[in-house]
Predict the 3D structure of the following.
Amino acid sequence: MEITVFVDDVNDNVPVFGSDSYRDTIPENVPVGLEFLRVTATDADVGSNAWVSYTIVDGNYNSDFAIDLESGVLSVAKSLDRERRHTYELTIRAQDSGPGSKFSMCALVLDIEDVNDNNPVFPDVYRPVVIENNLPEITVEQVAADDADEGVNGALTYSLQGNTYNSLFTIERTSGVIKVKGRLDHEERKEYTLTVVAEDAGQFSLIILAPFVVAIDKQYCS
Ligand SMILES: [Ca+2]
Ligand SMILES: [Ca+2]
Ligand SMILES: [Ca+2]
Ligand SMILES: [Ca+2]
């Protein structure tokens, strides 16, 4: 006599991720909806005891990322901005659908790569005043702009654009120190208008132009 024994599967296996931890890098300007990585976990049981669903359970700041419940494919859910957040440490859970559902976790570190998407800005307005009959080569002002980007995308150099009054005014490229070469005379001219440029060193460099008015004051004899 032949006996056939059917062994019912018991949900005694947890889903196991291909790796305990994943790491990936995405540029900050990727489009919303971009699918960038798939995590998978296998479950040695059968049927619903092995049906695995995926969720992000921690680290999903601002809900910037989404995971497909069935496939484990991760996508960008919202616009990223490295200047807002440059790294995420997500915790992803794989959970089976059997009775006494079993799950496991893996970690995913996402680094957001900088793109040159910020112009330099001058936080201050400069209103320098020079007393006439100055010594030559005196410093009029030191200007400084800010740039929120990283590395070369935020590394600034300075220049003067347009009229420098026959190079009467100069600016040091890296320090932003503006000097006047010759002696100024209030009766001859009461102010000079310059255009100061700050430029970052990104591949597609961004600039800001700022008007810069130097007033010449009268020297009173004491
Ligand atoms: Ca299982
Ligand atoms: Ca940005
Ligand atoms: Ca940036
Ligand atoms: Ca920049």
User: Anything to note?
Assistant: Residues 105 and 211 are 56 Å apart (CA to CA). Residues 116, 118, 147, 149, 153-154, 200, 202, 206 surround calcium ion (ligand 4) (CB under 6 Å). The domain at 129-217 is CATH 2.60.40.60 (Immunoglobulin-like).
